[in-house]
Structures are given as C-alpha cells and as structure tokens.
Amino acid sequence: MNAWLQQLSELRKILAFLRPYLLRQPLLLAAVLASALFVMLFEGFGVGLLVPLLNLLLGGDRATPMRPLQWLERTLPGHSPAFYIGAIALAIVLSVALKNAAFYTSLVLAARLKRRIAVKLRDDLFRRLHRADLDLFDRLPGGDLANVFLVETYRTTVAIDALLALIQRTSIAVFYVAALFFLSWSLTTLVVLLAVMLASALSFVYGRLTSVGVELTDLNHRLASMLGQSFSGVRIVRATHSQDRELEQFHALNRAQADAEERSAEALSLLFPITETLAVAGAMVIVTCSYIFLVRPGYMLSSYLLAYGFVLLRLLPLLNQIYGLHGHLAYLAGGIHEVKAWLETPHFPARPFGSAPFAGLGQAL
Length: 365
Known about the structure:
Blueprint: H1 2-23, H2 26-59, H3 67-75, H4 81-130, H5 134-139, H6 144-183, H7 185-201, H8 203-232, H9 234-239, H10 243-295, H11 302-343, H12 361-364
Helix pairs in contact: 1-11, 2-4, 2-6, 2-11, 4-6, 6-7, 6-8, 6-11, 7-10, 8-10, 8-11, 10-11
C-alpha cells in the first residue's frame, strides 16, 4: 500500500510540473479533452447497442426487449426482428466510425499540443541556462547540455503523450464504471475493489520502473559526459595511446545503460500478463457469483447479466492500458526530474553595468 501511495504521489508531482505548460495552451488542451470526450461518448453508444443486438440475435422473437430496443419498437412499430437487427447494426457501424474520427482528431491535436510544449520547454531551459552563474559551465562536464536538451526533454514530451492518453482512457473507464453502476451497484462495488487490488498488486512493478527510470537518467548523464570529455581531448588520448582505456570505459557505461533499458522492458512486460490474469480471474468470479446469487433467485434478468459481462470485458483492457500508462509515466519520471532540476538553476546576479546588448563593431564605428 505504501508503494502504491508513493506512485500516486509521483504522479501528482508529474502533473504539478506539466500543469503550467498545459495551461499555456488552454484552447488546444480543451480541444484535446473534448475530442477524448467524444471518443468516450461514441464508444459508449456503440457498446450500449451491442448488448441488445446480441440479446435479439440469441433470443429472436422470444427475447426480452431491452430499453434501446423498446425505444426503437415504439418509434418504428410493426417491423420484424430482422429490421431492428439491421437498424441497430447500422447505428453501431456509424458510432464506431465517429469514434475513430474523434480518436484520430484527438491524436492530431495531442501531437500539436506536444510540439508547442516541447518548443516552450526548450526555450525556457535555454533562457534559464543563459542566466545561470558562469561557474556552472566551468564545472559542467561536456555533453551534459546536449543530453538534457535532446534526451531528457524528449522523455518529458513523451510523458505528455502518456498523460493525455491516460486522461482519455480514464474518462472512457469512468463511463464504463457508470454504466456498470446503472446495471448493478452491488456488483460494481466489487469491480471497484478489484481495480484497487490490481493497483496494489502492481505497485512493486511501478517501484521498479521508477528506480530504473532514475538510474537511466543518471546513466544518460554519465554517458553524455564521457563522450564530451573523450572527444574533446581526443588529441591527448591518441598521444598517450589511451584508446583502449577509453573504449573500456565507454563499453562499461554503454552496457550499463543497455542493462537498465532491458530491466525497464522486463518490468513493463510484467504489467500486461499480471493485470490481465488477475482482472479476468476477478471478473469471472464476479459474473459467476452474480449468476448464482442474483440471476437464479430472480433478482436480475439474464439479459442484464449479459450486458454487465459485456461491459465488464470491455473495461478490463482499459484497466490494463491505464496501469500500463501509469507505469510508463513512472519510468519517464526520472527525465522529468532532471529537466526540472535544470529549470531551477539559480540566476546569475543582475548585471552591474547595464542591460544594453552589444550591437557589434561594424555598426558602432
């Protein structure tokens, strides 16, 4: 539980760091969130129509009409089940097409938002470092600036992608949970408890991803420094015949970085099998218990249990994606903390001799 709370605290810190950059583009951010909302609505509409369609296909004329089918029969009375099946199928195809159009729009807008944030982030970093104490650059190993501008800022912008995807998947999951509460609040309480148990079970994976992300940030820092120092002094290296020693040092750092990336891949690969296995096991227990204790005694219609199971099976992959994105953010947190540390570099004291820039000798003469 403590590890899970630590991961939630880490996610809160990431949100606090990225919030100013997201709020600087309010209209674009609102458009991204609105397109994600449309994805959720069309997804829910299509899934909501699949259940009465399956009920109608399985039961035919003897099927107990569900609410969407009852509305369709009142609006267009006097038709055969085949007509209603075709109408529902056409509505499902239309909702899926609209959902995919909204999803494509969301991806395009998110890419545009990420581009603007990346430009602003690098501009802020460049401006901050030009106001830093000159002693910082005397102590700075070669390659550190290139590493933070090219590698760590890229990881930060990737975190923005993951954060927006997490918001989108979470909104769809909230819609599914609301639909489950509508069908049966008692069973949905068990589903929420299952989600909390899954998050607790995956907390050790999040801890591994966080530690590996921090380690990878340090290794990127050391590797960039080693490259800058080695090639800036390449004449001395050749004069002293130290190529083999430099190669051994580089190989050690290169191997350590590759090992860290391998450990992160192994930790990420644990998320899907653990989440899917535990989620499916819990879902099957919930469905079986609901049939024994609710459907057989007559407290719930079998058609509602079908709808509940279908929505639950749609929710499980979303939970897997949400936990996977959370783990990815935990892995990227090391790069975000590195960029934040550089952005908090102390300012150089105010210029004692004015602020007029040097215009050049050609214009001054």
